[in-house]
Write a structure and sequence with these properties.
Order of helices and strands: HHEHHHEEEEEEEEHHEEEEHH
Largest sheet: 8 strands, antiparallel
Helix content: 25-40%
Strand content: 25-35%
Length: 272
């Protein structure tokens, strides 16, 4: 096992004896990754470049930082491949906030993992709706995870991932099974991290998943969503308070991000 993979497994709290490419190993690694490494967009918000190089990702995550889908799933896929998994990167169109008649770009990365002839969707980077367990690639079957229920719908050559929210099924993203390659992620990664219309360059987003539920921060709105219980919400009133929540609730080294403090002050002063 390489030093980089050993460091990643240690970071994800998944130092497993006799690691083998099994469904149990995949499930433990996926949940361990999600709970150890927060989802966040501090770099795009502050105008700091986002690298998808494996050494840069390991260094960033080890320094109490998180990232978004391209960062999470690039490192996750590298680890799975190193452990002997057949893990194929895919691109998806996010549908969660899009009107039905709007075609969205392919700006989400996920993985297709094959184990003993069975195919699973495994994703560590979809924010507050990230499944915390692998999902079998089967249509119309409700699948339980530690943090909610999901299902996949077959749309001809495409699949749609849905999550149950307050009794309704929310459409998360649509994908096909064509393999994507590192070069395919360079453009969407640049777009979501630098383009002025990208919500990652305008709005603060952070998610930390724990056994009991998820901590979620969107600009000044902080909430904790327990599993199967109503959310607890709180409005933050200053950049200093936002920074404190990022540091102490989300465990992020926010103070080390150049230019972030000014961005947080600006978010706190935005009109409702």
């Amino acid at each position: 096992m390489s030093d980089s993979i050993a460091a990643y497994l240690n970071l994800a709290g998944a130092v497993l004896p006799g690691i083998a490419p099994s469904l149990d190993t995949l499930a433990r690694l996926q949940r361990g990754h999600i709970q150890a490494i927060p989802f966040e967009n501090l770099n795009p918000l502050a105008g700091v470049p986002v690298s998808l190089a494996i050494p840069a990702l390991l260094e960033k995550f080890a320094a109490r930082r998180g990232g978004y889908c391209f960062e999470h799933n690039t490192l996750y896929r590298h680890a799975l491949a190193s452990l002997g998994f057949l893990a194929t990167p895919l691109l998806a169109r996010v549908r969660m906030t899009a009107p039905p008649d709007v075609v969205t770009p392919r700006t989400h990365m996920l993985l297709l993992v094959e184990i003993d002839g069975e195919r699973f969707i495994s994703d560590t980077g979809f924010g507050k709706m990230t499944p915390t367990a692998p999902l079998r690639l089967v249509a119309d079957s409700v699948q339980h995870t530690p943090h909610g229920r999901y299902r996949l719908a077959s749309l001809g050559d495409e699949w749609r991932l849905e999550a149950e929210v307050d009794g309704d099924w929310l459409h998360l993203y649509v994908f096909d099974l064509r393999p994507a390659y590192p070069v395919d992620f360079e453009m969407p990664n640049w777009y979501v991290s630098t383009h002025p219309v990208s919500h990652f360059t305008r709005d603060l987003i952070a998610v930390r998943t724990v056994d009991e539920g998820r901590h979620v921060l969107h600009n000044t709105r902080y909430s904790f969503q327990p599993t199967d219980l109503p959310a607890v919400r709180r409005e933050l009133v200053s950049g200093e308070e936002i920074a404190d929540v990022l540091e102490n609730t989300f465990g992020l080294a926010a103070s080390g991000v150049p230019g972030l403090a000014a961005k947080l002050d600006g978010i706190a002063r935005r009109p409702d």
